[in-house]
């Protein structure tokens, strides 16, 4: 079936099977940041934005996104790199496999929540699993990133 | 692995209903659960183009379209005004924001899943489901019906001055509940009435109604006795998350906390 959608601000047209999941289609389109980590709709690695909202691309049928706007990490590269520096400075990363999905949800969070507290942050990011770390470095990175954004906005 | 031969984004409810009459047709909700199964689906019917993704408030009811997401429930001001933070509490532990941006209310209720927090919460309220062919039926009746080929269009909650509390126990954050419990109270036909819904027993949620007048200054001991009676009125099962005995204990504790919390607010 032919489906057309906007991927990272560019119109794309693909031919997909009715049971193709968006995750695989996005990878075939070159967005290798999008990964499957759990097979149980639980880990958040496959997080992309559909019309600006964080979603699990492993559970979205590609045929159902016709006319919608998809954003992957490749579409917000500069912003992702900026937050990535905070992660690196805190030594938050080990294998880095979960980072793209995590970063996408952090960037969704800063768009949705104003000045979130620690508990709000933890709740927003509870669906992003990291099996190397204990999330402490990530939390420090987020707090510093939020403070930096606040200052940058004056 | 599940397979789909044909995907149809329905243009009308009638089309969706007709397509769904075939044995191998399925209606798609958020695809969170169906994808994990092994169904061989001939026609998958997508209801997302039919305006079922809105929450509408009238003078008497709140009507939640079947394609509303759990995140919409969590953030709904009308439900918050009526029931406080309980509705958000009932869904906020479900996996993550991404999941709740996708899982639908209709899918959760239609599936009548044992693990369902959403079903447990709505069952305790004055709730109806609107079906395409079957009319509007009480959720407490719908929950015990066999799955059929009708379409669930909306979940309708009647307004009324009710207190609502929701609690669940999970072994880890974002996991399925070991036990989920909702308590609602209000004046029904001039009489104080309590509703208790317990889900993840691990069987699907069931409802208990009691015409109890619990004094606002009831002692902890008295509340414990009420909670014991409630917990003993349900059946429980054993699975990898907990034994039947453990679940009954949890039910008693959660019901006690919920009754106490309601009484404390009304004191």
Output the strand order for the largest sheet of chain B: 4-5-8-6-7
Number of helices of chain B: 10
Largest sheet of chain A: 5 strands, mixed
CATH superfamily of the largest domain in chain A: [2Fe-2S]-binding domain
- Biggest sheet overview of chain B: 5 strands, antiparallel
Q: Helix/strand/pairing class of chain A, anyone?
A: alpha+beta
CATH structural architecture of the largest domain in chain A: Orthogonal Bundle
Give the C-level CATH assignment of the largest domain in chain A.
Mainly Alpha
Q: How large a portion of the residues of chain B is in β-strands, by DSSP E? A: 25-35%
Give an account of the 3D structure.
In chain A, strands 2-1-5-3-4 form a 5-stranded mixed β-sheet, with helices on one face. Chain A folds into 2 domains: about 1-75, Beta-grasp domain (Ubiquitin-like (UB roll)), CATH 3.10.20.30; about 75-155, DNA polymerase, domain 1 (Orthogonal Bundle). Chain A has helices at about 20-30, 75-90, 100-110, 120-125, 135-154; strands at about 1-5, 10-15, 45-50, 55, 70. In chain A, about 40% of the residues lie in helices and about 15% in strands. Chain A is globular and about 45 Å long. In chain A, about 40% of the residues are buried. In chain B, the strands form 3 sheets. Chain B has a 5-stranded antiparallel β-sheet with strand order 4-5-8-6-7. The relative contact order of chain B is 0.12. Chain B contains 10 helices and 12 strands. Chain B is globular, with a radius of gyration of 19 Å. Chain B has 2 domains: about 5-45, Uridine Diphospho-n-acetylenolpyruvylglucosamine Reductase, domain 2; about 55-265, 2-Layer Sandwich (Uridine Diphospho-n-acetylenolpyruvylglucosamine Reductase, domain 3), CATH 3.30.465.
């Amino acid at each position: 079936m032919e489906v057309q959608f906007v991927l990272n601000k560019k119109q794309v047209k693909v031919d997909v099977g009715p049971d193709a999941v968006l995750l695989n289609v996005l990878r075939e389109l070159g967005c290798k940041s999008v990964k499957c980590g759990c097979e149980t709709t639980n880990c958040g690695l496959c997080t992309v934005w559909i019309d600006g909202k964080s979603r699990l691309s492993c559970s979205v049928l590609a045929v159902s996104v016709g006319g919608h706007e998809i954003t992957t990490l490749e579409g917000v590269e500069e912003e992702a790199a900026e937050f990535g520096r905070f992660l690196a400075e805190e030594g938050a990363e080990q294998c880095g496999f979960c980072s793209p999905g995590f970063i996408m949800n952090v960037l969704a969070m800063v768009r949705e929540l104003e000045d979130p507290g620690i508990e709000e942050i933890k709740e927003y990011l509870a669906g992003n699993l990291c099996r190397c770390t204990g999330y402490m470095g990530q939390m420090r990175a987020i707090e510093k990133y939020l403070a930096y954004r606040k200052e940058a906005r004056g | 692995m599940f397979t789909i031969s044909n995907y149809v984004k329905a243009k009308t409810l009638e089309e969706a209903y007709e397509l769904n009459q075939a044995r191998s047709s399925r209606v798609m909700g958020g695809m969170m659960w169906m994808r994990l199964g092994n169904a061989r689906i001939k026609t998958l019917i997508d209801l997302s183009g039919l305006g079922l993704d809105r929450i509408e408030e009238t003078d008497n009811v709140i009507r939640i379209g079947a394609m509303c997401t759990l995140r919409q429930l969590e953030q709904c001001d009308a439900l918050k005004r009526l029931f406080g933070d309980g509705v958000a509490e009932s869904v906020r532990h479900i996996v993550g924001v991404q999941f709740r941006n996708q899982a639908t209310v209709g899918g959760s209720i239609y599936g009548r899943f044992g693990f369902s927090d959403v079903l447990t919460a709505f069952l305790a309220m004055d709730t109806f489901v609107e079906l395409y062919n079957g009319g509007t039926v009480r959720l407490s009746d719908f929950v015990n019906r066999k799955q059929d080929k009708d379409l669930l269009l909306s979940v309708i909650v009647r307004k009324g001055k009710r207190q609502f509390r929701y609690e669940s126990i999970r072994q880890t954050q974002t996991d399925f509940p070991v036990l989920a419990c909702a308590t609602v109270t209000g004046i029904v036909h001039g009489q104080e009435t309590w509703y208790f819904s317990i889900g993840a027993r691990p069987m699907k949620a069931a409802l208990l109604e009691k015409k109890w007048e619990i004094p606002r200054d009831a002692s902890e001991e008295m509340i414990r006795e009420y909670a014991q009676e409630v917990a003993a009125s349900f059946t429980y099962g054993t699975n990898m998350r907990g034994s039947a005995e453990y679940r009954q204990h949890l039910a008693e504790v959660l019901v006690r906390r919920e009754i106490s919390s309601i009484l404390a607010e009304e004191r």
